[in-house]
Amino acid sequence: MRKGEQTRSAIVAAACELAARDGLEGLTIGALAERMGMSKSGVFAHFGSREDLQIAVLKAYEQRFVDDVLKPGLEAPRGLARLRAIFGNWLDRTAVEAASACIWISGATEYDDRPGSVRDELVGMVRSWQRELVRAIRQAIDTGELRADTDPGELVFDLYGVILVLHHDARLMDSPDAPARARRAFDRLVDAHRAPVATPSTRRATRTARASAA
């Protein structure tokens, strides 16, 4: 990396730490310049505006999220094992971030009613993540592990609720049981959508039904 790229990367890394502590709105050029031992103009030389800096922080956070949560989960076999691995990684990361804050979750609170480029970037990232979850759920339907009538969007909604409650209880309530409760909630959701196990009698009934229909 060239020196300018190295400096920019270092600024973004420091900005991510400040944003985790103070939120994206609490991220200021002045505080970042002081943290880096630079002048404000020196920081501005790498980012055209405060919004550009905030978006750079979001992109850096998203990349780490993909590296820590999605990519390792994709190594699991397609189907329920992959969905479980992805969710487990997401849960572990959320539990760790409860000590500071999840930039996506805190950003949602800060920008839910604040239009602009930062909000648009955040919304796009969350929607992209939800599409990955929907894809994993559909694969579990295709493998026959989840029922064919499972609504992927509905299940994603429920899974997001588990993560939000985990973050709330671990961060605000300081509950040591929050991660374990979240894992049990995931198991209950999966069990509610799990496809029935085929038995010899059900397979015979299915064959009979198909023969009658033919």
What can you see in these coordinates?
The chain is an all-alpha fold and 214 residues long. The protein contains 10 helices and no strands. The radius of gyration is 22 Å and the shape is elongated.
Distance between the termini: 67 Å
> Per DSSP, what share of the residues sits in E-state strands of 2 or more residues?
under 5%
Q: Which word captures the global form?
A: elongated
Class inferred from helices and paired strands = mainly alpha
Low-pLDDT segments, ≥5 res: none
Please bin the fraction of helical residues: over 70%
Mean pLDDT: 91
Q: What is the count of DSSP helices, taking H or I runs of 4+ residues? A: 10
Rg is: 22 Å
| SSE string | HHHHHHHHHH
Number of strands: 0
Oligomer: single chain
How do the helices and strands line up, and which of them pair or pack?
Layout: H1 3-22, H2 29-36, H3 40-44, H4 50-74, H5 80-97, H6 103-111, H7 117-142, H8 152-171, H9 178-193, H10 200-213
Helix pairs in contact: 1-4, 4-5, 4-7, 5-7, 5-8, 5-9, 6-7, 7-8, 8-9
